[in-house]
Design brief:
By secondary structure, this protein is α/β, with parallel strands linked by helices. The chain has a single domain, classed as UDP-N-acetylmuramoyl-L-alanine:D-glutamate ligase (3-Layer(aba) Sandwich). Helix content is 36%, strand content 26%. The chain contains 10 helices and 14 strands. Strands 5-4-1-8-9-10-11-12-13-14 form a 10-stranded mixed beta sheet, with helices on both faces. The radius of gyration is 19 Å and the shape is globular. Keywords: ATP-binding, Kinase, Nucleotide-binding, Transferase. Belongs to the carbohydrate kinase PfkB family. It comes from Brachybacterium sacelli. This is 1-phosphofructokinase family hexose kinase.
Protein backbone atom coordinates (compact mmCIF):
# COMPACT_ATOMS: atom_id res chain seq x y z
CA UNK A 1 0.00 0.00 0.00
CA UNK A 2 1.14 3.55 -0.82
CA UNK A 3 0.26 6.44 1.51
CA UNK A 4 -0.54 9.42 -0.74
CA UNK A 5 -0.38 12.69 1.18
CA UNK A 6 -2.07 15.68 -0.46
CA UNK A 7 -1.39 18.89 1.52
CA UNK A 8 -3.90 20.83 -0.59
CA UNK A 9 -6.64 18.54 -1.98
CA UNK A 10 -9.31 19.84 -4.33
CA UNK A 11 -12.53 19.02 -6.11
CA UNK A 12 -11.54 19.24 -9.78
CA UNK A 13 -13.92 20.50 -12.47
CA UNK A 14 -12.72 19.82 -16.04
CA UNK A 15 -14.51 21.43 -19.01
CA UNK A 16 -13.86 20.54 -22.65
CA UNK A 17 -14.28 23.20 -25.37
CA UNK A 18 -13.26 23.59 -29.01
CA UNK A 19 -10.85 26.46 -28.40
CA UNK A 20 -10.01 28.69 -25.43
CA UNK A 21 -10.24 32.38 -26.40
CA UNK A 22 -9.66 35.15 -23.87
CA UNK A 23 -12.64 37.44 -23.20
CA UNK A 24 -15.07 35.21 -25.18
CA UNK A 25 -17.96 32.99 -24.20
CA UNK A 26 -17.41 29.26 -24.69
CA UNK A 27 -19.76 26.38 -25.38
CA UNK A 28 -18.75 23.55 -23.07
CA UNK A 29 -18.93 20.12 -24.68
CA UNK A 30 -18.30 18.03 -21.57
CA UNK A 31 -17.98 18.61 -17.84
CA UNK A 32 -16.24 16.15 -15.51
CA UNK A 33 -16.00 16.38 -11.70
CA UNK A 34 -13.34 14.36 -9.90
CA UNK A 35 -11.59 14.13 -6.56
CA UNK A 36 -8.33 15.97 -7.09
CA UNK A 37 -5.19 17.53 -5.79
CA UNK A 38 -1.93 15.98 -6.94
CA UNK A 39 -1.73 13.31 -4.24
CA UNK A 40 -5.34 12.27 -4.85
CA UNK A 41 -4.53 11.98 -8.56
CA UNK A 42 -1.63 9.70 -7.63
CA UNK A 43 -4.01 7.50 -5.63
CA UNK A 44 -6.47 7.30 -8.52
CA UNK A 45 -3.71 6.30 -10.96
CA UNK A 46 -2.42 3.69 -8.52
CA UNK A 47 -5.93 2.22 -8.38
CA UNK A 48 -5.94 1.84 -12.17
CA UNK A 49 -2.55 0.12 -11.92
CA UNK A 50 -4.01 -2.31 -9.38
CA UNK A 51 -2.12 -0.87 -6.40
CA UNK A 52 -3.83 -0.05 -3.09
CA UNK A 53 -3.35 3.37 -1.55
CA UNK A 54 -4.30 5.35 1.53
CA UNK A 55 -5.29 8.96 0.80
CA UNK A 56 -4.45 11.47 3.53
CA UNK A 57 -4.26 15.22 4.05
CA UNK A 58 -6.36 18.09 5.46
CA UNK A 59 -10.02 17.98 4.37
CA UNK A 60 -12.97 20.16 5.29
CA UNK A 61 -16.40 21.56 4.46
CA UNK A 62 -19.00 20.52 1.92
CA UNK A 63 -16.39 20.28 -0.84
CA UNK A 64 -14.29 17.97 1.28
CA UNK A 65 -17.33 15.76 1.85
CA UNK A 66 -17.97 15.54 -1.89
CA UNK A 67 -14.34 14.62 -2.51
CA UNK A 68 -14.55 11.85 0.07
CA UNK A 69 -17.75 10.50 -1.52
CA UNK A 70 -16.13 10.35 -4.95
CA UNK A 71 -13.21 8.31 -3.58
CA UNK A 72 -15.56 5.98 -1.66
CA UNK A 73 -16.49 4.36 -4.98
CA UNK A 74 -12.88 3.25 -5.66
CA UNK A 75 -12.18 -0.03 -3.87
CA UNK A 76 -8.38 0.29 -4.05
CA UNK A 77 -8.36 3.63 -2.18
CA UNK A 78 -8.73 3.86 1.61
CA UNK A 79 -9.04 7.27 3.27
CA UNK A 80 -7.48 8.77 6.42
CA UNK A 81 -8.11 12.52 6.25
CA UNK A 82 -7.41 15.07 8.97
CA UNK A 83 -10.50 17.28 9.51
CA UNK A 84 -10.08 21.06 9.26
CA UNK A 85 -12.44 24.00 9.77
CA UNK A 86 -11.89 25.54 6.33
CA UNK A 87 -13.51 24.60 3.03
CA UNK A 88 -11.48 22.37 0.71
CA UNK A 89 -10.80 24.21 -2.54
CA UNK A 90 -12.18 23.67 -6.03
CA UNK A 91 -10.15 23.93 -9.24
CA UNK A 92 -11.13 24.47 -12.86
CA UNK A 93 -9.31 23.07 -15.91
CA UNK A 94 -10.42 23.96 -19.44
CA UNK A 95 -9.21 21.58 -22.15
CA UNK A 96 -9.18 22.36 -25.87
CA UNK A 97 -7.37 20.99 -28.91
CA UNK A 98 -4.12 22.73 -28.01
CA UNK A 99 -3.89 21.68 -24.36
CA UNK A 100 -5.18 22.59 -20.91
CA UNK A 101 -5.67 25.88 -19.04
CA UNK A 102 -5.93 25.61 -15.26
CA UNK A 103 -7.36 27.89 -12.57
CA UNK A 104 -6.19 26.80 -9.12
CA UNK A 105 -7.10 28.63 -5.92
CA UNK A 106 -4.79 28.79 -2.87
CA UNK A 107 -6.90 26.50 -0.69
CA UNK A 108 -8.09 26.95 2.91
CA UNK A 109 -5.82 28.45 5.54
CA UNK A 110 -4.56 25.85 8.01
CA UNK A 111 -4.06 26.88 11.60
CA UNK A 112 -0.95 25.92 13.51
CA UNK A 113 -3.05 23.40 15.42
CA UNK A 114 -4.37 21.84 12.20
CA UNK A 115 -0.85 21.45 10.76
CA UNK A 116 0.21 19.80 14.02
CA UNK A 117 -2.85 17.53 13.94
CA UNK A 118 -2.00 16.42 10.42
CA UNK A 119 1.52 15.47 11.47
CA UNK A 120 0.23 13.61 14.54
CA UNK A 121 -2.38 11.72 12.51
CA UNK A 122 0.18 10.59 9.95
CA UNK A 123 2.80 9.46 12.46
CA UNK A 124 0.25 7.61 14.60
CA UNK A 125 -1.08 5.93 11.48
CA UNK A 126 2.35 4.57 10.56
CA UNK A 127 3.12 3.52 14.13
CA UNK A 128 -0.13 1.60 14.82
CA UNK A 129 0.54 -2.09 14.05
CA UNK A 130 -3.15 -2.98 13.78
CA UNK A 131 -4.06 -0.01 11.60
CA UNK A 132 -4.18 0.17 7.82
CA UNK A 133 -0.94 2.15 8.06
CA UNK A 134 0.91 -1.02 8.99
CA UNK A 135 0.71 -2.05 5.33
CA UNK A 136 2.21 1.21 4.03
CA UNK A 137 5.34 0.47 1.99
CA UNK A 138 6.08 4.01 0.76
CA UNK A 139 4.78 7.57 1.07
CA UNK A 140 4.19 10.23 -1.59
CA UNK A 141 3.82 13.94 -0.81
CA UNK A 142 2.42 15.81 -3.79
CA UNK A 143 1.40 19.31 -4.76
CA UNK A 144 1.27 22.84 -3.44
CA UNK A 145 1.10 23.85 0.21
CA UNK A 146 -2.06 25.51 1.50
CA UNK A 147 -1.85 28.86 3.29
CA UNK A 148 -0.64 28.29 6.83
CA UNK A 149 1.61 25.35 5.97
CA UNK A 150 5.19 26.54 5.54
CA UNK A 151 8.09 24.84 3.79
CA UNK A 152 9.61 24.13 7.21
CA UNK A 153 6.34 22.49 8.32
CA UNK A 154 6.48 20.25 5.24
CA UNK A 155 10.08 19.40 6.12
CA UNK A 156 8.91 18.34 9.57
CA UNK A 157 6.31 16.07 7.98
CA UNK A 158 8.92 14.50 5.69
CA UNK A 159 11.30 13.89 8.61
CA UNK A 160 8.51 12.34 10.67
CA UNK A 161 7.42 10.04 7.85
CA UNK A 162 10.98 9.01 6.94
CA UNK A 163 11.81 8.30 10.59
CA UNK A 164 9.03 5.69 10.63
CA UNK A 165 11.02 3.59 8.19
CA UNK A 166 9.16 4.41 4.98
CA UNK A 167 10.77 5.82 1.82
CA UNK A 168 9.28 9.22 0.97
CA UNK A 169 8.78 10.67 -2.52
CA UNK A 170 8.12 14.43 -2.76
CA UNK A 171 6.67 16.26 -5.76
CA UNK A 172 6.48 19.99 -5.01
CA UNK A 173 8.31 23.19 -5.92
CA UNK A 174 10.14 26.24 -4.62
CA UNK A 175 11.45 26.42 -1.04
CA UNK A 176 9.36 23.38 -0.10
CA UNK A 177 11.30 21.27 -2.62
CA UNK A 178 14.62 22.33 -1.10
CA UNK A 179 13.41 21.72 2.44
CA UNK A 180 12.16 18.26 1.48
CA UNK A 181 15.50 17.45 -0.13
CA UNK A 182 17.32 18.33 3.09
CA UNK A 183 14.85 16.55 5.37
CA UNK A 184 15.10 12.89 4.39
CA UNK A 185 13.13 12.56 1.14
CA UNK A 186 14.22 9.45 -0.74
CA UNK A 187 13.03 10.63 -4.17
CA UNK A 188 12.24 14.06 -5.61
CA UNK A 189 10.08 14.47 -8.71
CA UNK A 190 9.94 18.11 -9.89
CA UNK A 191 9.35 19.09 -13.48
CA UNK A 192 12.24 20.73 -15.30
CA UNK A 193 10.99 24.28 -14.83
CA UNK A 194 10.53 23.76 -11.08
CA UNK A 195 13.97 22.17 -10.71
CA UNK A 196 15.70 24.95 -12.65
CA UNK A 197 13.90 27.73 -10.78
CA UNK A 198 14.64 26.15 -7.40
CA UNK A 199 18.34 25.46 -7.99
CA UNK A 200 19.30 28.35 -10.30
CA UNK A 201 21.16 25.94 -12.59
CA UNK A 202 21.29 25.98 -16.40
CA UNK A 203 20.12 22.50 -17.40
CA UNK A 204 17.75 19.88 -15.95
CA UNK A 205 20.69 17.51 -15.46
CA UNK A 206 22.58 20.11 -13.42
CA UNK A 207 19.40 20.82 -11.45
CA UNK A 208 18.88 17.13 -10.70
CA UNK A 209 22.49 16.79 -9.56
CA UNK A 210 22.22 19.86 -7.33
CA UNK A 211 19.07 18.48 -5.68
CA UNK A 212 20.62 15.03 -5.24
CA UNK A 213 23.59 16.66 -3.49
CA UNK A 214 21.19 17.73 -0.74
CA UNK A 215 20.37 14.14 0.22
CA UNK A 216 17.81 12.30 -1.95
CA UNK A 217 18.92 9.04 -3.56
CA UNK A 218 16.94 9.68 -6.77
CA UNK A 219 15.80 12.81 -8.59
CA UNK A 220 13.44 12.49 -11.56
CA UNK A 221 12.67 15.55 -13.71
CA UNK A 222 9.76 15.58 -16.13
CA UNK A 223 10.81 17.25 -19.39
CA UNK A 224 7.40 17.45 -21.07
CA UNK A 225 7.52 16.40 -24.71
CA UNK A 226 11.29 15.77 -24.35
CA UNK A 227 10.74 12.83 -21.99
CA UNK A 228 12.05 12.20 -18.51
CA UNK A 229 15.42 12.52 -16.79
CA UNK A 230 16.38 10.33 -13.85
CA UNK A 231 19.51 10.67 -11.71
CA UNK A 232 20.52 8.16 -9.04
CA UNK A 233 23.21 8.50 -6.36
CA UNK A 234 25.16 5.31 -5.67
CA UNK A 235 28.18 4.42 -3.54
CA UNK A 236 30.29 4.75 -6.69
CA UNK A 237 28.97 8.15 -7.73
CA UNK A 238 25.93 9.23 -9.75
CA UNK A 239 24.32 7.82 -12.88
CA UNK A 240 21.67 9.43 -15.08
CA UNK A 241 19.31 8.32 -17.84
CA UNK A 242 17.04 10.01 -20.35
CA UNK A 243 13.85 8.20 -21.40
CA UNK A 244 11.46 9.42 -24.09
CA UNK A 245 8.97 8.45 -26.76
CA UNK A 246 10.10 8.43 -30.41
CA UNK A 247 7.39 11.02 -31.16
CA UNK A 248 5.76 13.50 -28.73
CA UNK A 249 2.13 12.79 -27.85
CA UNK A 250 -0.44 15.59 -27.80
CA UNK A 251 -3.23 15.88 -25.25
CA UNK A 252 -3.89 17.06 -21.69
CA UNK A 253 -0.64 17.04 -19.67
CA UNK A 254 -2.31 18.09 -16.40
CA UNK A 255 -2.08 14.71 -14.67
CA UNK A 256 1.00 13.30 -16.40
CA UNK A 257 3.34 14.14 -13.53
CA UNK A 258 1.02 12.51 -11.01
CA UNK A 259 0.99 9.30 -13.05
CA UNK A 260 4.81 9.35 -13.00
CA UNK A 261 4.76 9.65 -9.20
CA UNK A 262 2.42 6.64 -9.04
CA UNK A 263 4.86 4.55 -11.09
CA UNK A 264 7.89 5.69 -9.09
CA UNK A 265 6.19 4.92 -5.78
CA UNK A 266 4.86 1.51 -6.75
CA UNK A 267 7.72 0.26 -8.94
CA UNK A 268 10.85 1.98 -7.59
CA UNK A 269 10.07 2.36 -3.88
CA UNK A 270 7.65 -0.48 -3.14
CA UNK A 271 8.90 -3.12 -5.61
CA UNK A 272 12.58 -2.12 -5.76
CA UNK A 273 12.80 -2.10 -9.56
CA UNK A 274 15.86 -0.56 -11.24
CA UNK A 275 15.59 3.13 -12.13
CA UNK A 276 16.06 2.72 -15.93
CA UNK A 277 13.27 0.15 -16.04
CA UNK A 278 11.02 2.41 -13.95
CA UNK A 279 11.72 5.44 -16.15
CA UNK A 280 10.62 3.52 -19.24
CA UNK A 281 7.38 2.51 -17.58
CA UNK A 282 6.82 6.03 -16.23
CA UNK A 283 7.14 7.57 -19.70
CA UNK A 284 4.61 5.08 -21.11
CA UNK A 285 2.13 5.58 -18.27
CA UNK A 286 2.60 9.35 -18.43
CA UNK A 287 1.70 9.24 -22.12
CA UNK A 288 -1.38 7.24 -21.17
CA UNK A 289 -2.35 10.07 -18.81
CA UNK A 290 -1.84 12.75 -21.48
CA UNK A 291 -4.35 10.89 -23.67
CA UNK A 292 -7.10 11.25 -21.06
CA UNK A 293 -9.09 14.50 -20.60
CA UNK A 294 -9.06 14.39 -16.78
CA UNK A 295 -6.10 14.32 -14.39
CA UNK A 296 -5.89 11.11 -12.39
CA UNK A 297 -6.89 8.88 -15.29
CA UNK A 298 -4.71 6.86 -17.68
CA UNK A 299 -5.28 5.03 -20.93
CA UNK A 300 -3.85 1.67 -19.88
CA UNK A 301 -4.11 0.13 -23.35
CA UNK A 302 -2.15 3.03 -24.86
CA UNK A 303 0.47 2.85 -22.10
CA UNK A 304 1.00 -0.86 -22.80
CA UNK A 305 1.22 -0.19 -26.53
CA UNK A 306 3.80 2.58 -26.08
CA UNK A 307 5.93 0.83 -23.46
CA UNK A 308 8.13 -1.14 -25.92
CA UNK A 309 8.71 2.00 -28.02
CA UNK A 310 10.19 4.10 -25.20
CA UNK A 311 13.84 4.94 -25.85
CA UNK A 312 16.30 5.17 -22.96
CA UNK A 313 19.97 6.13 -22.87
CA UNK A 314 22.49 6.67 -20.11
CA UNK A 315 23.93 10.18 -20.11
CA UNK A 316 27.12 11.52 -18.47
CA UNK A 317 26.65 13.13 -15.06
CA UNK A 318 28.12 16.58 -14.33
Amino acid sequence: MILTLTPNPALDLTCTVDEVRAHHEHRVQQVRTAAGGKGVNVARVLAQLGVRSLAAGPLGGTTGGLLRELLDSIDEISQAWTPIDGETRRTLTVVDRSGATGFHGPGPHLSTAEVAALRTDLTLLLEAPQDAGADVEAVTVSGSLPPGMTASALAGLVRALASRGRPVLVDTSGPALLEAARSGATVLKPNAAEALATTGTRTPLEAAAALADLGPHVVVCSLGADGMLGLERTEHGSRAWLARLPEPLGGNPTGAGDSVVAVLASSLLADGAALPEVLVRAVAVGAGAVARPVAGEIDLALAELLHPTVEIEEIPCP
